[in-house]
Each structure stands twice: as structure tokens, then as C-alpha cells.
Design brief:
- β17 and β18 (474-478) form a beta hairpin.
- Strands 7, 8, 9, 10, 11, 12, 13 and 16 form an eight-stranded mixed beta sheet that branches. A four-stranded antiparallel beta sheet has the order 3-6-5-4.
- The chain starts with a helix and ends with a helix.
- It is an alpha+beta fold and 509 residues long.
- The radius of gyration is 59 Å and the shape is rod-shaped.
- The protein has helices at residues 2-54, 75-85, 113-124, 155-163, 189-195, 197-246, 251-258, 283-289, 292-312, 337-364, 400-410, 421-427, 484-505, and strands at 60-62, 71-73, 93-98, 133-138, 142-152, 177-188, 267-280, 316-321, 324-329, 373-388, 393-398, 417-419, 433-435, 439-441, 444-448, 451-453, 465-469, 474-478.
- The model has no long low-confidence stretch (mean pLDDT 80).
Length: 509
């Protein structure tokens, strides 16, 4: 609204000032013109009419008219004397009739630079005699305009000047430049500036409004800057907190919460999931053999490696229960029951293969009996969601199918994987497995037929790989591209191991 009002008032202020300036200019011109006319009338009354009346109506035109009874000034003398009186009453107009060729009885005229230059131009023909020469000058607060026009000799002037005894020359010709008439008009700039009183008032008001607006903007900018700083600090704090919270949640759950897809309220739903459960064999015995610091480091390394593999396959890591891992597929993201079961099985195989590498590394670091892991997988319906209280909750699963996955893990061989029939039916096209003795479980009325996964450590597509692992024995031979030298070294190593094994098993004498 303020901007619209300012745009409306600006042309109004300019129009009022232009009208006022026009009125002021007209008044100044009228005043100056009246002053000039009054000065001429006064001169004419005294030096022309008065002298004629004193001589009984008889007159004689002469340049030295004051010395002759009834004498009146000739045009040149009139012009010279008018120059001495025009502008003496305070008006801004001055008049001069000057020449560099004066009669002997007259004092010479002092021509300034502008007058000398103008006279030279008129006589040289550089400037046409019917055009005026102008000059604009002045100081910062006062401007001045000067105009020069030529005085041209006519026929009567030539005849008079050539016969006159005081004439500076007697060879004048018609059209010669006798001298110049110079008119000077000055105007203080301050008077013109003050004529724009409405515009100045508008600019003053606009300036005050602008200063107030700038002050308001500066204040708002400071406030916005403070708000932005507070927001940056809050965002940094929230980013740090979210990074810390992400360590306690699976990536899928973390993403769904912070994207707004899932609310932090107690709610569950029943879904078909593939549940994974793993446990370290004889963990209690292992803890007695290791120092707490070494045990903590190994366990954290184990969890780190297993979690990395779980995330690569899209598993939702539910929790760590002591040395056990509970994870599942099918929530909050799912690709279908069959794809979830296949991804879970591939994850378990990748974990067991990684454990072989970790065990080799741990043995090189001096760990005599590194971890051996058993794994169980089951597919079935569970309740999944947020369990707990309004103040603290946990995203997890409950149900007999989850307990079955733990039971399947317990009957698996160290380094082995056991799946339920429900899971095997979904992945039988990509895995080899053989059934085990049926088992029963509290909460499940039917008998459950477990299936032990075969070729966990070999690629079924690679028939030239031999791998065998027990608690104290690990063997893996890749026959593909095996060189003769390497084959002999393996044969010597195996024969040496067999001889040592036979020696240790022989009865003592």
C-alpha cells in the first residue's frame, strides 16, 4: 500500500512543482522586463523628451548631445548609455553596447574575453551575422547565460561615420560590424532548486519512509539471522541425534520413522515374515577362555560383519540377544514371501561363509577356538509393530513362528543352517537340503519337519571346489586351475596331517 501511494504522489508532486516553477519563472521575467522598461522610460523622459522641451521643441541628434541645446542621443550613444543603467536596480538582466572602434571623445570600452571572441567571429564570417553567440557559465550555486548579437552598419550610419571628424575610421562600408550588443542574464541555482518545494517535500518524506523501511528491514534481517542461526543449531543437533538414534534402529525402521511413513505409537499388524535366528555355539565356554576386553572386541566385530551382510540383503535387524541375532524379512518392506525367503537364505549362507574368513583371521590373531554359529530360518505369520508403553516402545515381532526359528537354530550343526518346511518350500528351487527328524514346539500343534541346508560353503555351480568344516578342522580346496606344484604341496600337507592324526590316535605302549 505504501509503494502504491508513493507512486501516485510522485507525479502529483512533480506536476505541482512544474506549475510552481513556471509561475515563478513568469513572475521573474515580468518583474525584470518591467524594470528594464521603467529604466528605459526614465532615460527617455530625461534625455530625450526633457531636452527637447527645454529647447522649445527643437532637437539635434548628436553623440555629444549633452553639450548641444536640444541635443538628443544618437542610437549608438543611446545604446551605450542604456547599458550603464539597465540592470542597476537589482534585476538579473544586464545590457552592454560595446565596440573596439570608439569616437575620440569617448573613453575606450573594456571588452572581456567573451565579447572579444564574439566580435572576432562576426567579423571573420565564422559565425553568421544573423545568428547570436551564446555562452553558459557560472558557479555551483549561480548560472549565467550571455548572448552577443552584431551591430551592423547601415547606409545612413556609413555616411555619418565616414564624415565625422571623431570617427576612428572613414572607410566604413554597409554591412560592416560596428560592434556588438551583449545581454547577460543570471539566475541563482538555489532559487530554482527551492522552486521544487513539493518534490523536495516528497523526497524528504520518501527519504524518511525509506530510512524507516531500511531500519525495519535491518531489524527483521537481524531477527531472521538469529532465527536461521537457531535453526542451524537445531538442525545440527537433530542431525547428530538422528545419527545416534539410527545406531539403535534398523535402516528400514529408521527411514520409515523419519520419513513420516510410520508413527511412534503402539500398533501392530499380522504379517507373513521370514524370521532368521542365529546363535554362537558354546558361547559361555568361550567367554571363560577369553579376557573380557578380547571377548568384547570379537563380539562387536562379529555383530558388525553380520549386520553389514544383513543390511546388504535387506533384512530388518530386530535385536541382539546376548550373542544371538534376530532378524526378519517382510516388514516394513517386502518383495513377496518367496523373494523374502530367498533373500534370508542367501543372507544366512553369506554369513556362514564370512564366518570362515573371520575364523581364519581370528586364529592368526591367537584365538584358539573362534566362534561357530548355528542358524535357523522359518516362514510364517507373526505380529509385527511397536510393542511397549506410551513412554518407551520397541519395534519387534512376537509369535510362535519366531520361537520356531530359535528352535531350528538350536538343532543346527555348528556352521550349519536349518530351515522349516514352509521356508524350504519357497526356496527349494535354489537350494539343496535334506529333512531331519520332526520336532514339536509349544504353541505349534503340528509337527515341524526341519531341513538342513547343504553346500553352505560351496557354490553348487562349482563342482571343482571341496570344502569341509568342523569345530577343529577346516578344509577348502579349489581344483579349478590347480597347478601341479600346488597339488603336490596340498598332497604333502594332507599326508602330514593324516600321519600326525594316526600317531595321536595310536594306543600308547
Amino acid at each position: 500500500m505504501t509503494v502504491v501511494l508513493a507512486l501516485v504522489l510522485l507525479p502529483a508532486a512533480v506536476w505541482l512543482d512544474l506549475r510552481h516553477l513556471s509561475n515563478e519563472a513568469l513572475m521573474r521575467q515580468a518583474t525584470d522586463f518591467n524594470s528594464v522598461i521603467s529604466e528605459i522610460r526614465s532615460y527617455y523622459a530625461v534625455n530625450v523628451v526633457g531636452r527637447i522641451q527645454q529647447n522649445n521643441g527643437q532637437s539635434v541628434a548628436a553623440h555629444n548631445y549633452e553639450e548641444i541645446a536640444g541635443g538628443i542621443p544618437i542610437p549608438a550613444t543611446l545604446s551605450i548609455e542604456l547599458g550603464s543603467i539597465v540592470g542597476t536596480n537589482g534585476n538579473k538582466i544586464r545590457y552592454r553596447f560595446v565596440s573596439d572602434e570608439v569616437f575620440e571623445s569617448r573613453s575606450s570600452h573594456n571588452l572581456d574575453a567573451f565579447e572579444i571572441s564574439a566580435l572576432a567571429k562576426f567579423r571573420s564570417g565564422v559565425n553568421p551575422k544573423n545568428e547570436a553567440i551564446t555562452e553558459i557559465s557560472g558557479s555551483l550555486l549561480n548560472r549565467q547565460v550571455r548572448m552577443a548579437v552584431p551591430v551592423i552598419m547601415g547606409q545612413s550610419c556609413v555616411a555619418c561615420h565616414n564624415r565625422h571628424p571623431e570617427s576612428p575610421k572613414n572607410d566604413w562600408k554597409v554591412g560592416d560590424v560596428r560592434g556588438i550588443q551583449a545581454i547577460t542574464i543570471s539566475q541563482p541555482l538555489a532559487a530554482n532548486i527551492l522552486s521544487f518545494k513539493y518534490l523536495l517535500a516528497y523526497l524528504f518524506g520518501a527519504g524518511l519512509v525509506g530510512i524507516a523501511f531500511i531500519a525495519m528491514q535491518w531489524r527483521q534481517a537481524r531477527q531472521f539471522l538469529q532465527i536461521n542461526n537457531d535453526l542451524e543449531e537445531a538442525n545440527s543437533f537433530l542431525a547428530a541425534m538422528s545419527l545416534k538414534i539410527s545406531k539403535y534402529l534398523s535402516p528400514q525402521v529408521y527411514k520409515s520413522i523419519f520419513s513420516g511413513e510410520r508413527d511412534a505409537v503402539i500398533s501392530t499388524e499380522r504379517k507373513k515374515l521370514t524370521i532368521f535366528f542365529s546363535d554362537i555355539k558354546d558361547f559361555t565356554v568361550t567367554t571363560e577362555r577369553l579376557q573380557p576386553e578380547e571377548l568384547t572386541r570379537l563380539l562387536n566385530e562379529y555383530f558388525t560383519e553380520m549386520t553389514k551382510i544383513a543390511q546388504e540383503h535387506g533384512a530388518t535387524v530386530d535385536k541382539f540377544i546376548g550373542d544371538a541375532i534376530l532378524a526378519f524379512f517382510g516388514d516394513p518392506e517386502t518383495k513377496g514371501a518367496a523373494e523374502d525367503a530367498r533373500a534370508c537364505l542367501e543372507m544366512a549362507i553369506a554369513m556362514q561363509r564370512r564366518m570362515v574368513e573371520l575364523c581364519d583371521e581370528w586364529r592368526r590373531r591367537g584365538i584358539e577356538n573362534p566362534f561357530q554359529v548355528r542358524m535357523g530360518i522359518n516362514t510364517g505369520y507373526c505380529n509385527v509393530g511397536n510393542f511397549g508403553s506410551a513412554d518407551r516402545m520397541d519395534y519387534t515381532i512376537i509369535g510362535a513362528e519366531a520361537n520356531l526359528a530359535a528352535r531350528l537354530q538350536s538343532i543346527a550343526e555348528p556352521g550349519g543352517i536349518v530351515v522349516s518346511y514352509e521356508t524350504f518350500a519357497l526356496v527349494e528351487d535354489v537350494v539343496k537340503a535334506h529333512p531331519l527328524e520332526p520336532i514339536t514346539l509349544k504353541g505349534i500343534s503340528r509337527e515341524v519337519v526341519p531341513y538342513a541346508v547343504e553346500d553352505v560353503y560351496t557354490d553348487s555351480r562349482r563342482e571343482d571346489v571341496l570344502e569341509q568344516n568342523t569345530n577343529r578342522f577346516h578344509l577348502r580346496v579349489d581344483f579349478g586351475g590347480l597347478e601341479v606344484r600346488e597339488g603336490k604341496e596340498i598332497e604333502v600337507a594332507l599326508k602330514s596331517a593324516l600321519d600326525e592324526l594316526s600317531r595321536r590316535r595310536a594306543p600308547s605302549t
